[in-house]
Write a sequence for this structure.
DNA sequence: ACCGTCATGTAATCGGTTACATGATTCT
DNA sequence: AGAATCATGTAACCGATTACATGACGGT
């Protein structure tokens, strides 16, 4: 049993395994695509390698079909459950990183007006998408999911507000005024 | 000249090189720590490898001291400038990912009340930090930086609002109701 | 019977993170 | 002159992304 490091991806998988009872990577892929992937994207190939990693660390069990597709089915172990519970109970995760590419461009000297216009469009679309999802949430969806969606909506609103304001300001391109004020 | 892929990190380095005229990795490190690192963190070792990569791709030039520390000094090339300009002008970057660990925990079944309480503290602290930075912005700082800071402040406010509201709601732990409704 | 699409997976690569390491400076 | 801290860099590992690949199945 190797000593593996648990990343957010690990906990996503553990959480889904716990919720589902058991799952193949493909199941995980479906679930992620339909839910959590909206605010925490995971590549599908990760949903093959990560459960295998978890199994190596003793956090999950595998069982493999002997015939046909030889699908692997994963199940969370007690050790996995413990790790997940401990992570959930840890109330001090690192704070959010904003990491918005538009903001980065702005910072690095992009012309605000066209950038802001584009960003407004992008974020409006995302906002509408979220609101549609929110309106169509079926019964039985876990409350955490709905709350996450609401958080997403609130932040998209804020982005729209922010970029709209910037678009209306009509400044010229951000000057790169740091130029020359540092020497090696 | 290899064919390298340009990542956000690449553009950060290119942008800083353009602004500074020339820089050593250590200069970059300082600049990042003091400014852009607040919303787009980059490991310092990346500030050694990334400029080297850019040089391999023809986007930057290196010059190395022959004596003493043998520091490497990088300078953006015309090719780099073009790539940077093209990236800046591209108005359709992928939209923000929220990627908030607290939200992820909530989604994966954490008990909302204590989580929210902790998150409120974290985000309040970050908010205060940003507001202090904002109050002390010296002359000559590029406007993009200030605007980015303002965006950060707005989102931190939103997070505080969100978690405070959740903290006041007093729900029980989010039920993982998806349990059992999928089969392999 | 063929074709397209969904299902299901592996391989290769690389960016990013973590850890390690040592030379200068500054302070006492 | 010794300790602490800043400056400056390299090495190793690994998670994540990208690309590739093939089997099943439904429709015409």
């Amino acid at each position: 049993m190797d000593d593996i490091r648990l990343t957010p991806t690990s906990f996503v998988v553990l959480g889904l395994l716990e919720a589902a009872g058991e799952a193949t990577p493909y199941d995980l892929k479906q679930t992620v695509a339909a839910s959590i992937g909206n605010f925490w994207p995971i590549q599908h190939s990760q949903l093959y390698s990560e459960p295998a990693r978890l199994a190596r660390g003793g956090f999950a069990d595998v069982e493999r079909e002997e015939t046909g597709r030889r699908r692997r089915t994963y199940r969370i172990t007690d050790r996995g459950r413990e790790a997940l519970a401990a992570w959930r109970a840890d109330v001090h995760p690192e704070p959010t990183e904003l990491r918005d590419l538009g903001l980065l461009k702005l910072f690095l000297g992009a012309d605000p007006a066209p950038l802001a216009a584009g960003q407004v469009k992008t974020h409006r679309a995302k906002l509408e998408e979220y609101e549609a999802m929110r309106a169509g949430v079926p019964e039985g969806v876990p409350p955490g999911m709905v709350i996450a969606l609401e958080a997403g909506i609130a932040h998209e609103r804020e982005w729209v507000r922010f970029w709209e304001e910037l678009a209306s300001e009509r400044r010229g391109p951000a000057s790169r005024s740091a130029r020359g004020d540092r020497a090696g």
Observations:
- Chain A touches chain B through 82 residues (CB under 8 Å).
- Residues 5, 7, 9, 42-43, 45-46, 49-50, 53, 68-69 of chain A lie near DNA strand D (CB under 10 Å from a C1').
- Residues 176-184 of chain A have pLDDT under 50 and may be disordered.
- Residues 101-178 of chain A form one domain.
